[in-house]
Here is the input.
Amino acid sequence: MVPAGAAVTGGVAVGAAVPTAVGLAGGMPFWQAVAWVAAGVVVLTLGGAAADYVRWRRTRYRIGPERAELHTGLFLRTRRSLARERIRSVDLTAPLLLRMLGLVKVRIGTGEHSGGESTLELDPVARTEGERLRRLLLDRPAAAGADPVHDGPLAVLDPGWIRYAPVSFVAPALGGAAAGAVMQVSEWFGAQAAVIDWVGDRFEDTSIVTMILVLVAAALVVGTAGALGLWVEMWWNYRLEREPGGTLRVRRGLLTARSISVEERRLRGVELIEPLGVRTFGAARVDAVATGIAEDDESEHADHKTLLPPAPRAVADEVAAQVLRERVAPTGAPLTAHPRAARQRRIRWALGSAAVPVVVLAVLGALLDVDVLGYVAGACALVLVPLALLGARDAYRNLGHGITGEYLVARSGLLRRSTVALQRGGVIGWTVKQSWFQRRAGVLTLTATTAAGSGAYSVHDADASEGLTFAAESVPDLLAPFLERHEG
Here is the structure.
C-alpha cells in the first residue's frame, strides 16, 4: 500500500512540477528553479508515503457473523459497520499499479443512496483477500425456483464489437477535449499564440470554410483514436457470468481490472440503450435496472449498471433474456404504437427548434443590413428543416409500450433510444401528467415509479384512454381506484 501511494503521489507531483518549473525559470536561474521543484516533489512524495503508512497502521476491518466493520483514523477515530444482510454489492477495482503489486480496492455497498454511510472501502487489500471477501459477503443460498443450468458464462467479449466505439458520442467529445488540451498546455508554456499562428500558416491560402472542415475532420480522427483506446481499456477481458446463489458478475478492463457484482434479488429488469450512432449500425448495450446502482453519486461508478457493452441487437436481446431467465427477451416484444397526435407534437417541436436560428439570423441581417446573414439564414432553413422532420419522424417511430409476461415495456428517445423492461411487481406508483396541449391532443404521459434504476420510467404521449388502461393492467389495483369506467 505504501509504495503504491508513494508512486501515485510522486506521479502527480512530477506532472505539476513541469509547468511550475517553467514558470519559475522566468524569474530565477533554470537550475535553481529545477532544484526548488525537485525538492517539492520529494517532500510531497515522502509526505504522502508517511500519511499512507499511518493510515495503514490505524486501519482495521472485521467480517463478523452479522456485521462488516471498519475502524480507521488517527486524530479522529471513525468506526463504521454494515449489517451483512443489507450488503448488496462487493466490487473490486485494480488500476495497473495495484495489479502489479497484487492489490485490489474493495468497495462494499448496501445499494442505498445515502452517500458514504452506505459503503465501506478497503483501499487496498491483497487480491486473494479481495476475492475471499467478495465470496464471503455475497454468498447466498440459492433462491427458490432457481435453475442451476443457467449458471455460468452468459456473455464474453467479441473483439469485433470495437467497431461500435467510433460511432458513439464519445469520439467527437474526445476530439474536442484534445483540441482544448492543446490550447491549454500551450498557454501554460506561453506558446498559445505560436500554435494559433502555426495553424493559420498551414491554411493561409484556403478559405475559412475549408479550414474549419479540415480542423473538424482532424478532431474527429483524434477522437476516433481516443474512443478506440478507451473502449479497449474499459472492455478488454469482458465477461458476464451468473454465479451459484444468484449473483451476476461483470469482469472487464485492460489496465484497470474491474469486478462488479449485482444480486439478482435486487434486479427489477433491464434497459436496452441505443445511441443514434450505435443504433444506425444495429447495436445496443444492456444496463441493469436494479436497486442501489442507478444513479451513483460517484462518477467513477456511473457505469456499474452496464451488463453488456454495445453489441449487435440480437446479442443484446439474447443477453437480456438470459439475465432475466426468460426464453424470449421482453425488450424485443411487439409494442403498441402511439397516436398520430404524438407525431404531430414532435413535428411542431422539431420545426420550432429549427426555426429559432433561422429567424434570429434573418432578423439580425435585416436590423444590421448585412445581406450575408440573410443568405446564412436561408442555408440553415434548407438544412435544418429536413433534418428536423426526419428527427421528428424517427422520434415518433421510437415511441411504444406494452405488457409481456411479468414485464411492462416502454420505449422512447431520438438521440438515445431506450427500451426498458420493468418487472410489474417492481412498480410502486404511477404519475399521470397531461399538459393543456396534451389534453387538446388527447394524449398523456405515464411515469412508472420504482425503487430501482433511475427511479422513474415514462411512456410519453400515449392515447389517454389506452395509456390509463395499460397502467391499470400492468399493476392491477394500483391505479384502478382513481379511474372512471364508462359502460357501453
The chain has a mean pLDDT of 86. Residues 340-368 form the longest helix (29 residues). DSSP finds 13 helices and 19 strands in the chain. Residues 163-234 form one domain.
